Predict the structure.
Amino acid sequence: MSQHYDLIIVGGGPAGLTAAIYARRAGRSVLLLEKESFGGQIATAPKVENFPGFSAISGAELADRMYTQAEDLGACIELEEVLSVQPGPEITVTTDYGVHTCTALILATGMKRRTLGLPGEERLSGVSYCAVCDGAFYAGRDVAVVGGGSAALQDALFLADTCRKVTVIHRRSQFRGDPVLEEALRARANVDVVLDTVVTGLRESGGALTGVCLQSTVTGETRELAVDGLFEA
Ligand SMILES: Cc1cc2nc3c(=O)[nH]c(=O)nc-3n(C[C@H](O)[C@H](O)[C@H](O)COP(=O)(O)OP(=O)(O)OC[C@H]3O[C@@H](n4cnc5c(N)ncnc54)[C@H](O)[C@@H]3O)c2cc1C
């Protein structure tokens, strides 16, 4: 059994690291537990342009600064996955490395990735959820991005720098993401925007994605689009 903490925070994304900074400044002993990589989703953002104080900063650098700030303030930060939590006057947190106890617990575990639910999605090479991680594999090739929020727009902008063509597919008639990102995207010559359209199937050859089946949500019309990569955002 390790040391007892005033506060244990589960999740080392922006929310968890922020909580650690505030709690340390309030004089609490803090253990922050992260299962994968510090910074959470923001660490994969190519460019963050809405964080006050930075006109533009890479997500990785922003994550690094948050981590350093929490660590410099004395937060104990460990790479451990929280497997279970036992409530009580003394909360018991079990991880893949051991057991910790605390008086208060903050769950800052972020979101769960949403998939399209299509056959082959989990198995096929060519289906990705991270443009920053996998985009380089598709340099000079044709890809599609599915989604309508800022993450999708950012992914498409990032991919447009190196891919031959990027098709952005969104099920609604308008994007939900930042208008400034949409404006930047529409100015790119190698980006096609396909609205009111859903992906209904994946085409493959030998375990690799070769295209996507599309259906208009307005007319019901179907068609296929040949792509080497599909980025789900
Ligand atoms: C490509 C991309 C670009 C983006 N760009 C921007 C942007 O420019 N501006 C902006 O404001 N937002 C942006 N976002 C959104 C932003 O990253 C998220 O809103 C933010 O990361 C949410 O922070 P969070 O701490 O709540 O969750 P997350 O970032 O999801 O962090 C949760 C953390 O909890 C960890 N975790 C989960 N379960 C456990 C467990 N059992 N044990 C231990 N750890 C666990 C996860 O590994 C993860 O690191 C972007 C997102 C993406 C994907």
Summary: Residues 10-16, 33-36, 40-42, 44-45, 48, 50, 81-82, 108-111, 150-151, 154-155 surround flavin-adenine dinucleotide (CB under 6 Å). The mean pLDDT is 95. Residues 59-72 form the longest helix (14 residues). The chain has five helices and 14 strands.
